[in-house]
Amino acid sequence: MSEESKRTTGAQSETRAGKFGEYGGQYVPEVLMPAVEELADAYERYVLDNEDGFVDDFRQRIREFGGRPTPLSHAENLSERYGFDVYLKREDLLHGGAHKLNNALGQVLLAKYMGKERIVAETGAGQHGTATAMACAYLDMPCEIYMGRTDVNRQRPNVFRMRIHDAEVNPVDVGSGTLKEAINETMRDWATNVEDTHYVIGSVVGPHPFPAMVRDFQSVISEEMREQSRDQLGQLPEAVVACAGGGSNTMGAFASFVGSARLAGAPEGSQEPAPDVDLLAVEAGGSSLGVDKAEGYAPNSASLSTGTEGVLHGARTKLLQTEEGQIVESHSVSAGLDYAGVGPELAYLVDEGRVEPVNVDDDAALEAFHRLSREEGIIPALESSHAVAYLEEYEGDGPVVVNVSGRGDKDLDTVIEESAARDIAGAPTMEVFEE
Amino acid sequence: MSEESKRTTGAQSETRAGKFGEYGGQYVPEVLMPAVEELADAYERYVLDNEDGFVDDFRQRIREFGGRPTPLSHAENLSERYGFDVYLKREDLLHGGAHKLNNALGQVLLAKYMGKERIVAETGAGQHGTATAMACAYLDMPCEIYMGRTDVNRQRPNVFRMRIHDAEVNPVDVGSGTLKEAINETMRDWATNVEDTHYVIGSVVGPHPFPAMVRDFQSVISEEMREQSRDQLGQLPEAVVACAGGGSNTMGAFASFVGSARLAGAPEGSQEPAPDVDLLAVEAGGSSLGVDKAEGYAPNSASLSTGTEGVLHGARTKLLQTEEGQIVESHSVSAGLDYAGVGPELAYLVDEGRVEPVNVDDDAALEAFHRLSREEGIIPALESSHAVAYLEEYEGDGPVVVNVSGRGDKDLDTVIEESAARDIAGAPTMEVFEE
Amino acid sequence: MTRSEIRAAFDDGPALVSYVAAGDPSADATKEYVEALVDGGTDVVELGLPFSEPVAEGTTIQNAIKRALEAGMTPEAYLDLVRDLDVDVPIVCMTYYNLIYQYGDEAGPEEFVAAAADAGISGFVVPDLPVNESEPMYEACREHGLDLIFIVAPTTTPERLESMLDRTTGFVYVQGRLGTTGARDEVSENTPEALERLQDANVPKAVGFGISSGEQAREVVASGADGVIVGSAYVDIIADGVENDLPTEEVADRLEALAAELKAGARKGLPEPERK
Amino acid sequence: MTRSEIRAAFDDGPALVSYVAAGDPSADATKEYVEALVDGGTDVVELGLPFSEPVAEGTTIQNAIKRALEAGMTPEAYLDLVRDLDVDVPIVCMTYYNLIYQYGDEAGPEEFVAAAADAGISGFVVPDLPVNESEPMYEACREHGLDLIFIVAPTTTPERLESMLDRTTGFVYVQGRLGTTGARDEVSENTPEALERLQDANVPKAVGFGISSGEQAREVVASGADGVIVGSAYVDIIADGVENDLPTEEVADRLEALAAELKAGARKGLPEPERK
Ligand SMILES: Cc1ncc(COP(=O)(O)O)c(C=O)c1O
Ligand SMILES: Cc1ncc(COP(=O)(O)O)c(C=O)c1O
Which residue in C58, C98, C132 is closest to B312 by CB distance? Predict the structure, then answer.
């Protein structure tokens, strides 16, 4: 592609509107383009410029309904284990049990401001679907969630939750019946109902303005991290560690340090770049790295570490794909990280050297799940367990802030089963049931 | 019993140390009395007088680990429905998903200050056991939880959570294998290991100082309610509504308004009696009121409304019992309310007319579960659903604060099953699974 | 009987205090069992009135209580049973406070204590009524001439001990170990120590919690006890009878034999010169 | 062929643009099907290169793509198939941008466009490449003399329409309705309106999305279209063949017959005097 002139838009990584270097863009069917443009316009007006007090409204609701700020907890036992101070950013305490609500509430509220009358969203493990259903119930918006048939069957509690919040759940029967297919199907619904419908995408992926907008809604995480670090640590952390699936908790945890957060109303200085803070994006190493090109299968979801540039779901980014460009099935023990793409801004920040991509495998994540539960009394989501696991390899002096993007109640069955099958160190026995 | 002179100890309802009028006391085996006295002493020194900065430590930990303050959310859609303002105190957002951690963390921390080396606790539905296991993992204390065999089998996810936090779970095989038996068995363990062990009781029940101490740890709820009411409502609420099982979330929500909260370090004025605020304790009406004396069975758990005075689990209080004094099996669709006793202070406050006991039945609670989930995007615990249900009957002008004592994720299976069996209005279909 | 009778039961060398739960597995059986225990040498009968929440009991007695409740034992039936007993040793009622408190028309211990006295009960052991809460019960017992027997635990502080001894008549129930009732194979190491701190008390001291054999009874008496209290070891025999559907008589014989063994053991615990 | 050839295909009365997915259910079958479609009167072949994430397609074509991928269709095999086709109508490659972008050693559209031109492709339809992102693709097409065909949607704004028409050669793909591809029973009410706003464009206008019968083709042409684009209706026939294991020839015959019906219908849509 021809060299493009880099224009600064105020954000550090958005080199021109909708682009992060060569990443990003708006690769969607024409039928959606006007909606995407309308949304980009609404994003600028409401989210960046606080038109009609939108951001004030969002900030108040995410505080009073969502429970922000989430605490920054000192992990005393882990700190002792590692010899450096570990702090946990507690997105597991956000309403719904994960960082997902920051984005879902932001987008559903924005859709209301835009006069939309219906919400659609995709979901994989069900976390984003649940958060969206929750926000829609709260804001009184009709809501339909697409979810692969396989996921519907293996994530029943989240399906229950969505239904209990009165969202329609539409099982997607094609393909492997997981996240990728759900996204495709939601795009199709949006293309059909684009005039009155807003598509609440679940991570910093998709066409512009989604990656920037989702980042901004999630940037409340790092905005708080900075303030809390100042108050509790007396300094900025040496490093921030977050898991990366699509990358929304990741960008949420990094944005203020990168200097790319643009949500209106941030405390002074909190959106200035903080180049001394190391930013570590922990991907799912699955069972091993690389892509089986012949089989079109990747036993991991490490698109930042091992993916190649390509176009998927509306944006140019790093992808797990065959040499020909077919998207492969990714794999991780953690459903929420199991995605072949990643947010374009992260891809850019990795190329620029600002974010370091690392990964831990399934077993290490399971061990970390048990370690945090046992030593700190916090059951992390399997996604977040990847970030926690990376502490075992971290070599700095701290303090380190780990983003605990969600709670692991949803993962209990999987963890118990997988821990037994893999003989994971530190997993408790469950013989209490043997009677 | 002979009339006793009422001595004021600073609290409004504690008429002499350990007594609320004629309720309360210390009806425990002699082997436990020294421990109970030691605890009463520690309670006065640490909790009331902040010795060694205990309360500062507690307050910091419940904030940074637990996620306090929990928000007070304006329920816009319910307010519209009822024509008065409804606010929800969001204990569902506390770490662990219920108010239980306030108490568990307080007691485990106190045990540490007291030099105890081992924690035991009973649990029914598993909420208190989970909170205790969590607090023990965090504070690095060995922990054993007693749980009836029936409850172990029907509350598997909570058993998993306790085990994941590295607590031992001891199934109790006697009797009906539920909460009552678990309490009895924990008392026995305590009686055996009383020298190095602290028993973390799960509600405002048991011998003095438990009712007062648990109330004080939970009083952070009403302390915050008062501050948040001032900031968000500009006034105190007309009424505070909370469900009552043992009554810990209830006393937590009422204590500051009663004027009986005594936790050190409260903001000025926040422990002064506020006699204008109506306090409504919503009990589980089950399927109908009353006690089947012949069968020794109560189809409800409405001990405040319908119970009679007696002695159970260390305290004199209101009980569901036969005329002879045998404790009956209570019943509620909500496991956490399913207890034949209630905290002695509540019994006293009801007799004094300060707290009004009301009740709603199983069906009304299930309907409220769906209503709050659908209209406000918050899935309440079935226990809390009782408090929410009472809004349908409330006749004042508001504003009303409802204590949402916990989240309902744990209740999804029960609610779906029961809603289908009873044909509950407003319950969603689950046909998404029918393929 | 009067309270002096409980105390008097200790006059004649080391006393055997034997517990069974009333109504386990039926009132009729209990009558036979109690009589057998007395035949075996029991000096004081401790007859349990079953309460639904027996927090001070171990599994053995919990199960006994469950059987008794299922068989329909009630406070009224209990009093009938007591009236019906054909024994000439004092009978102590062991139960939990709520049953005492609820009995009759008015809340409080007064009515049950009166009824119990009338039926022939000589005293009470109420495990969940520590001395601090015992005032009304103590008064009622005094009024009706009954002993209120307190349990002294290994954890009991000197101050508590003093206030208990102030109110003690009949005998002192020395809890031999931490925890709950239940038969054990060995006598607690702490028994001598527990007895030692009671040496100035001028009431008989009986040790319970875990004693199940003549040898243990001997040891306990050798340590200075004036009596041994045995419960779970009998209840094990009754449970075995229920499980194997044994005739009441056979069970009664075994109970009598055990009582005799215990009584003999207790006697052996006395220093030679004192044995009778 | 050159781009004028796509446009030229519209010169001769209303054009029939026929889509099938390459490799569904095999490359050999596709060859026969394409030839049958041309025999039936197809003026432009739109040959789908299957991509794993076909977001613009309805269920019918999604399933076709799945069959083609499972049968091993790849970009190389696609180009071989194109080279192999024995038809004298222009062939348009319909695919998603990532396959174009990945082809060859260097990222970017250049290499695939060159290879496609070499194999005999005359133009591209890339549903996920809106005009805003089309610069590099447009340049590559221009360099190799290929048409880049844009889709005009019902939602397309006047400004967007203008920038599309600026780059349009070959024909304009008029999306007849919101949503994705898929055969429908009725022509969208919005078709006349959609065509009206294109009346000043000096390129042919072909309408697609939902057309499945001669009658619908007539209606569309009567509304002012210069051509009709049909895909799912053919794919339904192919799917039926796969399901019922029909011989390739029989399927080909049915495709030819449908093409003929569509073509005849399209002609009937012309005002009488213009019919040939
Ligand atoms: C708790 C949690 N963390 C992380 C993720 C990964 O998403 P993202 O990388 O967009 O934060 C998910 C997705 O479901 C999640 O549920
Ligand atoms: C969420 C919740 N609310 C209420 C209760 C009832 O307990 P309490 O009355 O002590 O608050 C429980 C008990 O498990 C509970 O889990």
Answer: C98
CATH code reported for the domain at C5-270:
3.20.20.70
* Partner-chain contact A377 B64, CB within 8 Å: no
Instruction: Tell me which chain D residues have a C-beta less than 8 angstroms from the C-beta of A180.
Output: 53
Q: Among A207, A222, A249, which residue terminates a domain?
A: A207
CATH at B162: 3.40.50.1100
Quote the number of domains for chain B.
2
Q: What would the pLDDT profile of C25-84 be if each residue is shown by its tens digit? A: 999 999 999 999 999 999 999 999 999 999 999 999 999 999 999 999 999 999 999 999
Clarify whether residues B49 and B180 are in a common domain. Answer: yes
Mark whether A100 is an active-site residue: yes
For A163-176, what is each residue's pLDDT tens digit? 999 999 999 988 78
The pLDDT assigned to C1 comes to 38
pLDDT for D4: 65
What average pLDDT score do residues B166-183 get?
90
Assess contact for B366 and B418: CB atoms under 8 A. yes
Number of Cβ atoms within 10 Å of the Cβ of C140: 22
Kindly list the residues from chain B whose CB atom is less than 8 angstroms away from the CB atom of residue C63: 174
Query: Which chain A residue shows the shortest CA-CA distance from D157?
Result: A34
Phi, psi of A89 (to 5 degrees): -85, 120
Pair A228, A370 in one domain: yes
Q: For residues A306 and A345, state if they share a domain.
A: yes
State the ipTM, two decimals: 0.94
A122 is catalytic: yes
- Does B contact D via 3+ CB–CB distances below 8 Å? no
User: Residue for token digits 């809604």?
Assistant: A217
Chain A residues within 8 A of D133 when measuring between CB atoms: 25-27
Same domain (yes/no): B163, B276: no
Least confident of A305-309, A327-331, B173-177, B180-184: B173-177
pTM for the structure as a whole: 0.95
Residue pair B225/B119 in contact (Cβ under 8 Å)? The answer is no
In which domain, by residue range, is B193 found? Answer: 27-64+100-207
pLDDT at residue B434, rounded to an integer: 63
| Residue nearest (by alpha carbon) to ligand 2 atom 1 | B406
Are residues A164 and B412, on separate chains, in Cβ contact within 8 Å? yes
Dihedral (C-alpha) A348, A353, A354, A360: value to the nearest 10 degrees?
90
Residue B107 identity: Q
End-to-end CA distance of chain A: 66
Does the distance separating the beta carbons of D179 and A191 come in below 8 Å?
A: yes
> Helix or strand or coil: residue A384?
helix
Ranges of each domain in chain C? 5-270
Same domain, B249 and B113: no
Rounded to whole angstroms, how far apart are CA atoms A11 and A9?
Answer: 5
Q: Do B174 and C58 touch (CB under 8 A)?
A: no
Using a 6 Å CB cutoff, which residues line ligand 2?
A: B 98, 100, 125, 127-128, 203, 243-250, 336-337, 381, 383-384, 405-406
Domain presence at residue A118: yes
Assess whether B272 and B157 both reside in one domain: no
Residue that is last in its domain, among A168, A186, A207: A207
Residue B16 placed within a domain: no
Whether residue A386 contacts residue A284, with contact meaning beta carbons closer than 8 Å, is answered with: yes
Q: Catalytic one among D35, D57, D219, D261?
A: D57
Q: What is the mean pLDDT of residues D20-46?
A: 98
Q: A130 with A277, same domain? A: no
Q: Is residue A353 part of a domain?
A: yes
pLDDT tens-place string over residues B71-112: 999 999 999 999 999 999 999 999 999 999 999 999 999 999
Task: Render A177-219 in DSSP notation, one character per residue.
Answer: SSHHHHHHHHHHHHHHSTTTEEE--SSS-SSTTHHHHHHHHHT
Q: Which helix (H) or strand (E) holds A226?
A: helix A220-228
Domain annotation covers residue A20: no
pLDDT tens by residue, C123-169: 999 999 999 999 999 999 999 999 999 999 999 999 999 999 999 98
- Please check whether residue A295 touches B, CB under 8 A: no
Q: Is residue A5 very low, low, confident or very high in pLDDT (cuts 50, 70, 90)?
A: very low
Based on the domain organization, do A51 and A83 belong to the same domain?
no
